[in-house]
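Pilot study result, target chain (315 residues):
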Amino acid sequence: MIRIRNNFLREFPSDGRYLVGVSGGRDSVALLDSLIVAGYKNLTVCHLNHQLRARSSEADARFVEKLAASHHLPIANGTANVRALARKKKLSIETAGREARYKFFAGVAKRTRCRTIFLGHHADDVVETFLINLFRGSGTAGLAGMREVSRRRVDNVDLTVVRPLVATWRSEIDRYVRSRHLKFREDKSNRDPAPLRNRIRLRIIPYLEKSLGRKIRQSLWRAAMIAAEEEAWIEKQVPNSIGSDLAVSSLRDLPAALQRRQILKWLRSRDIGNVGFDVVENVRSLLDCDARIAKINLPQNRHLRRRAKKIFITD
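Predicted structure:
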């Protein structure tokens, strides 16, 4: 049986209304089945066609439609030209796909007035994301990037993102799928070593385990979970920004670590995605009274300015 945290039912009772992201792959199919087995009935299946694999993507959408119908569940379908989005915003395919999915989820959440979504990320995803962010030089906010429960603001919609399978390994999901005789769609692109995540899964982790002579996945997962717990505590210590501006004087009085946290939290609350260390440090540079630069370019063709001891965002 797939392991779901003991107090999960208390925090997200089975008689509530929820969205569930279903791609058609084994992870999301296993998630949907395990929720139904646990007594969740008020689910809306959400599927986004990324238009990356032509007929295969269309077949995925039809498969999910039939799956939802077989459980008598409503479905919300969407499409996004992820490749075009990646080119336009100069993003990787994976990042563009993630942006498109959350935008789609936010739209469904707004239409259905249901702000909690279940996603099928599992323990191996946690480990891979941890390594990706570690190699990119992320701080603990990035290392804790895949939590069991997190909040995400997209297009002025506050989503609660729940990942019930973060403590479940891919091998356990495989056994569950076999035991339940579940059908799913196999994404052949998962075997392509070109994307960074696939290289980490197919080459880097096996190489490290062979070189070190021991399994490392559990240790990396534990480190990610510790970072997630610490990050959740730190976030509570950082006050929410009131209004649309940041006060330079009050921000300047904070230690550097809290300055970064406050700036990151503020940018995310303003729907600024894809925020990395360089962006945060550029914002911090505006705190210097002698700084000659008072304008910074942000992702999504937006800008940040300092004027009259205030920092604010413009289009």
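One observation from the pilot: The radius of gyration is 21 Å. A full batch analysis is planned for the follow-on phase.
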